[in-house]
Write a structure and sequence with these properties.
Length: about 400
């Protein structure tokens, strides 16, 4: 079964990455598998296709499989299940990115994907394994249904009404607001037209629980205006616009200021846009990843559904922002520069150093093994070097 196999590979890769080579077989579908189930073909589980010293790969190009595997890995401990699971249809990436915020507090609800009113096998298997406990913020619901999606029997649900994609993002923002009464609204506003610029919002929304709303290049859609009016309430909203002026124009930011304060962060292309968002921090908002000691998630530009599927990786474990590549076979110069800026170093012993760690989202056709190994090298802790002598570690 595809989802069980993917989770098996992912969990084994994670174990290998931390130095554990013990293989444990289980036929119990309620327990995470540590190796792939027996089959006619042996699966290559070695380095570096799935794991290197500092990276673990989620080896699929299917957003449904990625979401199922990620949810099961993040909630691998059966004693600490998710409060709920969010079911969302994969037909619109804007809804999926907005729904990623439900992974954050207070809902603790990772995404699984539906195929309209049916539940694909990866999602069905993951839901059975996750056993959501019920979210207080969602009225004890175990499943938060976004629109007219599958309704699995035996679970208590909370339903976000079906509508246009932007109407559903407004409803998701309203649900988040209801779950955080009295909290000042911090809102990520990003592009409704270019998923590559919007993709980094998913991981931070999953960490923070901040709602994500969408605008066009030159207009604020009526659904977004209505959501902002509601979210602002008695206190003016704090909006963080993700994307450059060529994607979200100054005309739009001027209109947004009717509802509160506006700050812009972004770069001129999807790669530098993701890096700028990763480095950004003001007050309590933002990643602030400009030094070493962080987790990072690496994915391909042009795959916003995968960004939403992988978002729980940013909100648990080593945490960390989504960084993007625009080619399977090359590491962008700007991303290499970011990794060099944040590469860990030690003076006397690496044992006492801080470490970086990376998740690679996508199969080898999305991010090649040579690129994965290059990322691994740039995440690796290295001897601190003296100024003017790049070959000598500090003594």
């Amino acid at each position: 079964m595809p989802s069980l196999r993917l989770v098996a590979l992912l969990l084994l890769a994670a174990l290998v990455a931390v130095g554990c080579g013990r293989e444990v077989q289980t036929s119990d579908p309620e327990q995470p598998a540590l190796i792939a189930p027996p089959g006619k073909e042996r699966v290559n589980l070695g380095f570096p296709e799935l794991a290197t010293k500092n990276t673990t790969r989620v080896p699929s190009s299917d957003h449904r499989e990625i979401a199922a595997a990620v949810a099961r890995v993040v909630f691998a401990d059966p004693a600490r299940p998710p409060d709920a699971v969010t079911l969302v249809d994969g037909s619109d990436w804007r809804v999926a990115i907005a729904a990623a915020a439900l992974m954050g507090p207070p809902f603790k609800s990772p995404i699984l994907f539906a195929d309209k009113t049916s539940l694909p096998e990866p999602s069905r298997t993951a839901l059975s394994a996750l056993k959501p406990a019920g979210s207080d913020a969602a009225g004890k619901a175990q499943i938060i249904r976004i629109g007219n999606v599958a309704k699995p029997a035996g679970y208590k649900t909370s339903d976000v009404p079906a509508g246009s994609p932007l109407a559903m993002t407004r409803s998701i923002a309203g649900l988040i607001r209801a779950g955080k009464p009295g909290a000042a609204a911090k809102i990520i506003v990003t592009s409704a037209q270019d998923g590559s610029f919007a993709a980094p919002a998913a991981g931070y929304a999953a960490l923070s629980g901040n709602p994500v709303l969408f605008v066009n290049r030159n207009t604020v859609p009526p659904e977004t205006r209505a959501a902002l009016a509601s979210l602002s309430g008695l206190a003016r909203a704090r909006m963080f616009v993700l994307g450059p002026s060529g994607v979200i124009s100054p005309k739009v930011t001027r209109e947004l200021r009717r509802f509160g304060t506006v700050r812009r962060v972004g770069g001129q292309d999807p790669i530098t846009n993701a890096i700028a968002f990763a480095r950004y921090r003001v007050g309590e908002f933002g990643w602030g990843v400009s030094n070493s000691g962080h987790g990072m998630v690496f994915g391909r530009a042009g795959e916003p559904l995968q960004a939403a599927a992988a978002a729980p990786l940013s909100s648990a474990g080593s945490y960390g922002p989504l960084l993007l590549l625009d080619s399977a076979s090359a590491l962008p110069d700007a991303l290499q520069g970011q990794l060099l800026d944040t590469q860990p170093a030690y003076r006397t012993t690496p044992v006492a150093a801080v470490y970086n760690r990376g998740w690679i989202v996508g199969d080898r056709a999305a991010i090649s093994v040579p690129v994965q190994t290059r990322i691994d090298a740039l995440l690796e802790v290295a001897p601190e070097q003296l100024p003017g002598n790049l070959d000598s570690p500090t003594r």
